[in-house]
């Protein structure tokens, strides 16, 4: 029996997950593959963005990353040694269609076909994400996600991948964190393509939602196996931060959470979202029939969670910054599409190396809330993890007690959600490998496996060995 103190800090012991619960890990193509200019791959918006001076720490790019493109077989062997039940990877759209549409690059398709076969040979279920932020640059040149034609192109891309891999993929995920693609890419500018256009960010929200619905239809029409269908969202778990907090939380929830969940799962955009944003856009980009297309039945809703965010109305004095989607930055934020400026308050620690607060109770709260809002909708934690400044020991091992403790506490939170009746199907740790962490370049390490970015050597960290024991026994190790 866990003590009161243990329950309060989410360090319960002896917890066992049910049979069939999936333990996996996740990566993204641009963050791990490298081979940016090989085998017919075209440029993506992240190739362009990372090569733009001042956009990424130290001028880092994903040109080599973890070199997974050449090391995929040994990486799959490593996954097998860790006992992973599933691997969530993303397919690089520009590796399949270098210009975003048109002629298919067979070498790109063949790479992912080999990857899927290799996973199945090792008893690991392939979970394939069609879009993890690497839009072909040619499509961005035509307007990117602000243009409806990008959703058209995405539907064609989904059809191609369904025909190629739909006999073997276990789960199709259409989009990863469209919040980031829309708001950080087109509103705040901290992610590729780096635009600062609030109205464009809202158009991108809709076209990403539409692309999801179109892709699910295309995948269902072409997949000859019996895959499951999904989308992964990053949710803002909000806390009040003082005067004006209730209204700030409502507005943030509408823009960050309900702008996606409601069209996806309820066939509507929330009325308060439309009212909040009427000074920015009239939403004329939403056409008759779009919401029906978006509202496709999905087998599982992917949930990404890292930390909470505390908000209030901006005081008019603090520096204005943008929340990055996983934590709250101090400073006023004119969220794209909102006529009220929100302030994200620095939260109590402890923090990860990203400066994100560690709050396992937020994961339990989120899972329970989603279960209550959308009864009958199965959930999957598709990303959860932490960056810390790992140090290699003299014997070559990588002890990472802070990450291990983070995972223990958040898996406890997931287990508590299960006990409260949440239909939670699994948990994917972010990430398998240290990798290119977007605007932070190679400065932040999330992996349960260390990558030496000079030699590209892999070393399983203590947290990786701990997670392997969990995957083997389904019991949270002591």
From TrEMBL:
Extract the signal peptide range.
none
Q: List keywords of the entry alphabetically.
A: Glycosidase, Hydrolase
Q: What is this protein called?
A: Beta-glucosidase
* Entry similarity comment: Belongs to the glycosyl hydrolase 1 family.
A Gene Ontology cellular-component term: cytosol
Give me any GO biological process, just one. Answer: carbohydrate catabolic process
Q: Which EC number(s) does UniProt give?
A: 3.2.1.21
GO terms of molecular function: beta-glucosidase activity
Write down a Pfam family by its short name: Glyco_hydro_1
């Amino acid at each position: 029996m866990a003590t009161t103190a243990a329950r309060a800090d989410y360090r319960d012991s002896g917890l066992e997950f049910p049979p069939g619960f999936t333990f996996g890990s996740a990566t993204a193509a641009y963050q791990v593959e490298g081979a940016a200019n090989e085998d017919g791959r075209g440029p993506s918006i992240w190739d362009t963005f990372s090569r733009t001076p001042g956009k990424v720490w130290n001028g880092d790019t994903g040109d080599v990353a973890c070199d997974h493109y050449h090391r995929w077989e040994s990486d799959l062997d490593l996954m097998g040694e860790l006992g992973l039940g599933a691997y969530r990877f993303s397919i690089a759209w520009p590796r399949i269609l270098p210009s975003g549409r048109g002629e298919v690059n067979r070498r790109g398709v063949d790479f992912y076909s080999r990857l899927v076969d290799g996973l199945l040979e090792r008893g690991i279920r392939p979970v394939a994400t069609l879009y993890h932020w690497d839009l072909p640059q040619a499509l961005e040149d035509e307007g990117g996600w602000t243009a409806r034609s990008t959703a058209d192109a995405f539907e064609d891309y989904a059809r191609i991948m369904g025909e190629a891999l739909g006999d073997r993929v276990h789960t199709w995920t259409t989009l990863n964190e469209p919040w980031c693609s829309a708001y950080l890419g087109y509103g705040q500018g901290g992610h590729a393509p780096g635009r600062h256009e609030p109205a464009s960010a809202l158009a991108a929200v809709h076209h990403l939602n539409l692309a999801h619905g179109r892709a699910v239809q295309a995948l269902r029409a072409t997949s000859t196996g019996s895959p499951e269908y999904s989308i992964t969202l990053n949710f803002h778990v909000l806390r009040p931060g003082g005067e004006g907090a209730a209204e700030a939380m409502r507005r943030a929830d509408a823009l960050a959470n309900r702008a996606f969940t409601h069209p996806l799962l309820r066939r509507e955009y929330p009325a308060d979202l439309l009212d909040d944003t009427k000074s920015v856009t009239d939403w004329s980009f939403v056409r008759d029939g779009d919401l029906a297309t978006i509202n496709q039945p999905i087998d599982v809703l992917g949930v990404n969670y890292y930390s909470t965010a505390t908000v209030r109305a901006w005081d008019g004095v603090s520096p204005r910054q943008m929340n990055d989607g996983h934590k709250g930055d101090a400073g006023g934020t004119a969220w794209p599409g909102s006529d009220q400026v929100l302030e994200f308050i620095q939260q109590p620690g402890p923090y990860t190396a990203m400066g994100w607060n560690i709050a396992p109770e937020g994961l339990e709260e989120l899972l329970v809330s989603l279960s209550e809002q959308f009864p009958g909708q199965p959930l999957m934690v598709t990303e959860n993890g932490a960056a810390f400044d790992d140090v290699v020991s003299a014997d070559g091992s990588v002890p990472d007690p802070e990450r291990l403790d983070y995972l223990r506490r958040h898996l406890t939170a997931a287990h508590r959600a299960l006990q409260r009746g949440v239909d939670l199907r699994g948990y994917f740790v972010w990430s398998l490998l240290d990798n290119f962490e977007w605007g932070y370049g190679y400065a932040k390490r999330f992996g349960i496996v260390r990558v030496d970015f000079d030699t590209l050597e892999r070393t399983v960290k203590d947290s990786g060995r701990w997670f392997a024991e969990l995957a083997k026994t389904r019991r949270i190790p002591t």
